[in-house]
Each structure stands twice: as C-alpha cells, then as structure tokens.
Amino acid sequence: MKEIKILMIVNVLCISAMMAFLAVVGPIIRELHLEEWHAGLTVAIAGVLWVLLSRYWGRKSDIVGRKPILVIGVAGVAISYLVLAIFIDNAIISPPAVIVSLFILILTRGGIGAFYSAITPVSNALIADHIEKEKRTGYIAKLAASSGIGMVIGPPIGGYLANFGLSTPLYTFAILPLLGTIALYMILPHEKPVTTEKTPILKVFDERLRIPMFAAFITMFSIVTAQVCLGFYIIDKFGLDSLKAAEMTGYILACVGFSFIISQILVSKSKIEATKLLKYGAFIGMVGYILVFLMNSELILTLGLCLGAFGMGILFPAYQTLAVNLVKKEEQGASAGTVSAAQGIGMIIGPLASTIIYKLDPTAPFILVSLLFFLLGIISFKYDRKERC
Predict the structure, then answer these.
(1) Which of 62, 173, 276, 301 is the most exposed place for a label (fewest CB within 10 A)?
(2) Does domain 3-189+207-388 correspond to CATH entry 1.20.1250.20?
(3) How far apart are CA 111 and CA 143, in angstroms?
C-alpha cells in the first residue's frame, strides 16, 4: 500500500507540532496568569469538538472520498496552530485579561481538535480500503509509529527552542501541518467513495464497537491526563522555573515517544490478535503509571511514563483495528470515526478530572490512570476469553 507513506509523513508533521506545544503549555499557562484547570479546559473543549466531528468526518469520507477530508483536516490544523502561535507571541509580551487569553486558547485549541479529529479515522478507513483484515493491525501500527516519531522529534525541539522564548517553538512548528496539506494534495490519489448518503448510518452505540470504544476512551483519558499534568508535576515536585520545566518536559515526552515507537514497531511485525493486544497493553500501562506516582526521582518518573507509553502503543492499533474489522466495508469510515469519538470523550473528561484532583494531591491523577488501566485489562481479558469460546 503506497499511500501508507504519505499518511505516515502527515502524522509525523501534525503530531510533532502538537507535541511541541505540550512541552510549553505548563509554562505558558503560568506566564499568562492562568490556572491549571484552564489548561484542562482548553484540552477538554478540543475533545468536545473531536467527539462531535469524528463520526461526521468518518461518515463524510465514506461518501465523498478519503482524500478531500484528509486535506481539509490537515489544512484546518495548520491554520488553527498558526493563529495560536501569533496570539501566544503577543500575549507573553503584554498579557491580556485572563478571560481573553482563555477565550483565544479555547478557540485555537478547539480548532486544532476539530480538524485533527478527521485525520486518524479517515487514515484508518483508507488502510481498511486497501488491506485485508489479517494485515490491518500491522499497517495501523505503522501509522501509529509515525505518530510516535512526531512525539519524539516534537518535544525536545520544542523544549530546546523555548530557551529562545516560549513562542519560538510555536512559530517553528506552525508550518509543519501546512507542509502536510501540500503533500497530501499533490501525492494522495483520488478514489471513488465507498457508499452514498442513502446508506443507513452506523449507530453510535453499535454493540459491535462497545469494546474498542471503551478501550479508546480509557487510553485517551490516560494519555491526556499525563500530558496535561506533567508540566505542573515537574514544576511542583522538582521546584524548577518555567523554562527549565519546559525543557525537562520536552525531553521526557521525547523518551515517551521513543518508547511508543518501539512498541508500534513490535506490533507491526507481530501476528498477535488485536484482542490479545488489548489486555497486554492495558496491564503494561498499569505498571508504568504505578511507577509514576511512586517515583522519587526524575529517572523513575521517566521510566514509568515510558513503560506506560509502551502499553498505550500496543493498545492503539488493537482497538483501531477492531473498529474497522468488526463492520462492513461501507461502514468503516463511520466506525473508525465512532471509536475516534470515544477517544474525544476521554479528552474531555481526562483533563478536567485530572487537573481538579491534582489540586488535592499531585500524584492523584497518576493513581487514577493506573486504576483505569487495571479495569481495561480485566475487561479485555474477559473479552478475549469470550471470543475464544
């Protein structure tokens, strides 16, 4: 499948840009005199739009084709990110009222979430269009591995560039999704739609998708909880200033991305069934986050987050593969969008819940994440046994 290469490139470009922002979001929130829950709110709003639009993008790609929706999605991310960069640059020099800063952050982060929600489900549906069921997990793992590459190159560069000003990495990375848009438009071939408007719409809570939706929700809940809280956790636990915290956050997230890539490579080369991957990933993630809340050094913190990322790297292709394998061809875009919407719900609840309980105890969000992974592991274990009976 030659299209996988351009899909991987676009994922690298978009994810590296988004992850570079995560490396500086904590310090930016502090510099703009906002509070931790404001960061959680901006991510949650992006999650709301993700939930509302993922099914729409997936269904629309079934009707009009994969390429137009992918181009629109990546272009929207590029424009939203550029507006965010321009605002942060000016706001750091002369901070506006808190309500203004919060509004602009919600608007731009919301735009990023709204358009990025098209990329993953439509890419997975495109893979399902060309690859037989038995090989889809490997291809989806390759796509997820490209996201891991973005996770690796984005944070350290973003953290390093923060030494020249918190807006510097934002300007640097704003152009990357734009390059992805151009590449998609020029390289990706146009193909006929797989269905029409008259085809019955897949139900939101279709019983075939309950397990992958649940796995998607918990996995994304765990990811955004760790991402949103990490910058604050480093500042409060190690007593670092904003710039040093941004740099350390960047390097830790780079290590996390590297771990994510390794697990994706292993999954892409393995022939393990998606149902088994679900339980393996959940229990590995649980162990990782237990280390995080028990940590007493930067090394243990990094090790725990890397182990958690390794588990999540296994989970992603598992539930994404199930999403397209369990439905008919004309439902694959809508199905991938439905499961992606479940990820968005995790984005909504995760940052809000984690930043609220962070105020109670900095370790509380990580304890919650480990418990959720344990729950997912138990459910996945029972699901795998049921499938074999």
Answers:
(1) 276
(2) yes
(3) 23
Q: Please state, in angstroms and rounded to a whole number, the distance separating the CA atoms of residues 240 and 232.
A: 10
pLDDT in tens, 150-192: 777 777 788 788 888 777 888 888 888 888 899 888 888 877 7
Q: Do 3 and 321 form a contact (C-beta atoms < 8 A)? A: no
CA angle, residues 345, 347, 351, in degrees to nearest 5: 125
In contact, 110 and 49? CB cutoff 8 Å: yes
End-to-end Cα separation, the chain, in angstroms: 34
Q: Are 46 and 110 within 8 A, CB to CB?
A: yes
What DSSP letter does each residue of 42-69 carry, written as one string? HHHHHHHHHHHHHHHHHHHHHHH-HHHH
Check pLDDT > 90 for residue 69. yes
SS3 100: helix
347, 345, 344, 354: which is closest to 231 by C-alpha?
354
Integer Cα distance of 347 and 282 in angstroms: 18
Residue 286: which pLDDT band, with cuts at 50, 70 and 90?
very high
Q: 320 pLDDT exceeds 80?
A: yes
pLDDT, one tens digit per residue, over 187-225 is: 888 777 766 666 667 777 777 788 889 899 998 888 888
User: What token pair was written down for 216?
Assistant: 């998607």
Tell me how far apart the alpha carbons of residues 176 and 184 are, in angstroms, rounded to a whole number. Answer: 13
CA atoms within 13 A on the CB side of 333: 28
Rounded to 10 deg, the angle between the 274-294 and 364-388 helix axes is: 160
Other residues' Cβ atoms within 10 Å of the Cβ of residue 94? 6
Structure tokens at 163: 């030494």
**Rounded distance, CA 56 to CA 87, Å?**
29
Contacts of 367 (CB under 8 A, 6+ apart): 289, 293
Q: Which two tokens stand for residue 17?
A: 């840009």
Helices and strands per DSSP (H, E), number in the chain: 13, 0
